Amino acid sequence: MADSTKGSDQKTRVYHPYQDLNVPIQKLYELPTTPELLFAEEAAKRHRSWGENLQYYAGCGYLSGAILGGAKGTVEGVKAAEAGDSLKLRINRVLNSGGQTGRRFGNSMGVLGLIYAGLESGITHWRGTDDLLNSVVAGLGTGALYRAAAGPRSAAIAGAIGGITAAAAVAGKQALKRYVPI
Predict the structure, then answer these.
(1) If 143 and its partner were Cys, which of 28, 70, 110, 158 is the partner (CB 3.0–4.6 Å)?
(2) Are residues 54 and 118 in the same domain?
(3) Per its UniProt entry, which superkingdom is the organism in (predicted)?
């Protein structure tokens, strides 16, 4: 395989395990940056289906809400500890508080993701185009629907917050695409 003679007039040859495959070693680790799809139909699709959106937004909402709520509940559990509590009692208080708050926040954020996904998919289907206006209107509608039972004023404020949040998320995504090379 490799001839290696030192000090003689024979030429040396470096061992190259890919020599029989005709692989250019310089381009061996240059991986593509675009997704490689198995079927041509997948390449023509511009966005996720409504079912994929539903799973994605509800799952991300529940997970992020559970993590944030668990952290908040843990801090509350640590603060609620009393001076005479044993270590077992303190740990139990922290775990119970973190679990209860995490579950509550996770469920709330999961419902928000569910409503948002349904509205965004519906608006995209109704308008026939996929642009940032769909996301903003879906965010506005999500906030308004979520707080509709609390009255029209609360629904309007929550709708405005949802629309602003969705617009900020879309703008942040566009900025990341433009300024962060991936």
Answers:
(1) 158
(2) yes
(3) Eukaryota
